[in-house]
Amino acid sequence: MANQQPTTGNPKVDIEYRRKKNAEEMRYQVVTFTLMIFLTLIAFAAVGFGDLSKWFTVPFILLLAVVQVIFQLYYFMHMSHKGHEAPALFLYSGALVGFVTVLAFVTIVWW
Amino acid sequence: MSTYAQKKGVGAVIWDYLTTVDHKKIAILYLIAGGFFFILGGLEAMVIRIQLAIPDNNFVSAGFYNEVLTMHGTTMIFLAAMPLLFAFMNAIVPLQIGARDVAFPFLNSLGFWLFFFGGVFLNLSWFLGGAPDAGWTSYASLSLASEGHGIDFYALGLQISGAGTLIAGINFLVTIINMRAPGMTYMRMPLFTWTTFVASALILFAFPALTVGLFFMMFDRLFGSNFFDHTMGGNTVIWEHLFWIFGHPEVYILVLPAFGIFSDIISTFSRKRLFGYSSMVFATVLIGFLGFMVWAHHMFTTGLGPIANAIFAVATMAIAVPTGIKIFNWLFTMWGGSIKFTTPMMYAVAFVPSFVAGGVTGVMLAVAAADYQYHDTYFVVAHFHYVIIGGVVLSLLAGTHYYWPKMFGTMLDEFLGKITFWLFLIGFHLTFFIQHFLGLMGMPRRIFTFLPNQGLEIGNLVSTIGAFFMAVAVIVLLWNIVITSVKNVKVGNDPWGDGRTLEWAISSPPPFYNFKQLPLVRGLDAYWIEKMEGKKEMTPAEPLGDIHMPNSSFIPFMISLGLFIAAFGAMYRVDYAWGLPVLVVGMAITLLSMLVRSIKDDHGFHIHKEDLIDDKDKGGKA
């Protein structure tokens, strides 16, 4: 995995390649971080400025939140790397089950 | 630790089992505890059937009947069926994937002791002022009104044993994802391993809903909250949703491993590769997925409205498709196979039509409009007993015969096994088939008696006679176990002669470190492939080396015991002043045990290579 430290004494480790990979990763992280701050500002703006109805604002902010979670998982928690298929599967299954539960509670429990 | 067999005293054996972290011994603990609760639940069932044998019976009082009925359901689901499945999962799954043990042996032990103390706590209610009496579903509006401590026993006992189940589920997930032997890809895993995997994922997602529901219940009853009290702004339907968001996946948690056991048995004794292996895997995963989308079909008459009812009805019927795939795959596996009718195979053959009967009534119940008629009648009782006994219990009995040699090194008597089978099968259909008609004639569920001259006498009498057949069958099985253990004739690696999967490539019972060298898996039915090439054993995937083993530990027992004591404190706190200190002491025992576990390093021990080499291995082979 690209985030592993080069172990000492192993001649097969290509430090140049590691460095390039890390630099690339760092760039993605900075870009993502900027995007996330930007999305947060939009969220504040949606509430603060303009007379948007809450039927637009609430789903809109939830959507931005979902995007931020995905950024967080893929660029900061390295889920984009290889070998994360099983955690991804379980994350998405869990999210789906949670979503269906919440959906049921807001639609058919408190009617 | 020595690898040589030693004669040990009774005390040493008991201490060994109290502290063990070995998956094979924990399997035996699960089997004994689950078997005990199975017999307890069976006795409760007999009380129910005796009471309903004739109209206007007064064998038990109405109140006691409610307790027996509640405890029968709760015991059978939580304390008998699940632990017995865990017994086989623990005994077989690590062997089937060629692992040394489960991923977290300490947690495995903790899971067992939590289940055990939770179960004991629940059953102590019989002696401490009355058992829970609001049905195994314990719907909030009824259970909040229940007097005495019965429902508190239910909420606290299930909370403790539920934590154990969740731990066991996570353990199997990690084991199956991370600890497969070299070459054991996902699509080479035996079906029992696959179904254990999917069932564990269901446990992971379903049990938190139960935990939340039980916490609400516990706080409503013991700590003055009002989650379910509509007069205080709560909502009683929340319990029903939380319970069934857990409860429906729960039935798949039970039946999927049962499917796995039968898939392995059918392919072994048909002496054929399982027909449509990949579609079996696909169907298993799909059933697991759909299992979360259908819970509200238990609540059609709650008043969810036609749209919700229609959605859940269609989703429910969709489950018949992957289940149908499985049924046909089992039939096609048998078709053209060279079938050997051993006891496990007879159970498997009987399972197919029995389970289909339960499935068909399931689709009938899924029709929301028709469900208003079936709702709360014996038709529903017949349906879920057909799927749970026809699916799960038959698989447990089949698995007991099939895996007994692997767990204990002796073969259960085949003749007695077949007597058990016929008595049980006849008794099961006699008891429950006629209940469909009792239900359609209008006999409601959960009534403690019925009036004469309403056409219900003969059906109920037949049903009770059938229950006695099943009781005799279980007694024959126990007798079989006793004489087999007394005779103690040891068998070899593959006593059925047709073993296909890795567990049959190792001695019965396996040594405590399992495979000396991890086996190399070259395809589905790994052991069968080697046999077909004339080999007697698996090719090793690694040179013989030191084996790292975990140390035994008494801490899981202490953690569970602490929660057991704390539960008494939490419950009696509302009546007596000593409740609170007992709660604190119990929690202190648990937390201190956890602290000891955290700060004391336990690196386990190594079995050295020199101790593992025997004469046969001098050439360096496995």
From TrEMBL, chain A:
Top-level division of the source organism's lineage: Bacteria
Record's keyword annotation contains Nucleotide-binding: no
Signal peptide range in chain numbering: none
Major subcellular site: membrane
InterPro entries hit by this protein: Cyt_c_oxidase_su4_bacillaceae, Cyt_c_oxidase_su4_prok
Keywords: Cell membrane, Membrane, Transmembrane, Transmembrane helix
Topological type in the membrane: Multi-pass membrane protein
Presence of keyword Membrane: yes
A GO cellular-component term linked to this record: plasma membrane
One Pfam family it belongs to: COX4_pro
TM spans (from-to): 28-49, 55-77, 89-110
Record's subcellular location: Cell membrane
Protein name: Cytochrome c oxidase subunit 4
Organism: Mesobacillus persicus
From TrEMBL, chain B:
GO cellular component terms listed in the entry, alphabetical order: plasma membrane
Root EC class: translocase
Species in which this protein is naturally found: Mesobacillus persicus
CDD domains to which the protein is assigned, alphabetical: Ubiquinol_Oxidase_I
PANTHER family: CYTOCHROME C OXIDASE SUBUNIT 1
Membrane protein topology class: Multi-pass membrane protein
Gene Ontology terms describing biological process: electron transport coupled proton transport; oxidative phosphorylation; respiratory electron transport chain
Protein name as it appears in the record: Cytochrome c oxidase subunit 1
Spans traversing the lipid bilayer: 28-54, 74-93, 105-128, 153-179, 191-219, 242-262, 274-295, 307-332, 344-370, 382-403, 415-438, 458-482, 554-572, 578-596
Occurrences of domain Cytochrome oxidase subunit I profile (ranges): 9-522
UniProt cross-references to InterPro entries, sorted A to Z: Cyt_c_oxase-like_su1_dom, Cyt_c_oxase-like_su1_sf, Cyt_C_Oxase_1, Cyt_c_Oxase_su1_BS, Cyt_c_oxidase_su1_bac
Family affiliation: Belongs to the heme-copper respiratory oxidase family.
Catalytic activity: 4 Fe(II)-[cytochrome c] + O2 + 8 H(+)(in) = 4 Fe(III)-[cytochrome c] + 2 H2O + 4 H(+)(out)
E.C. number(s) listed in UniProt: 7.1.1.9
Chief location of this protein within or outside the cell: membrane
Ranges in a coiled coil: none
Superkingdom of the source species: Bacteria
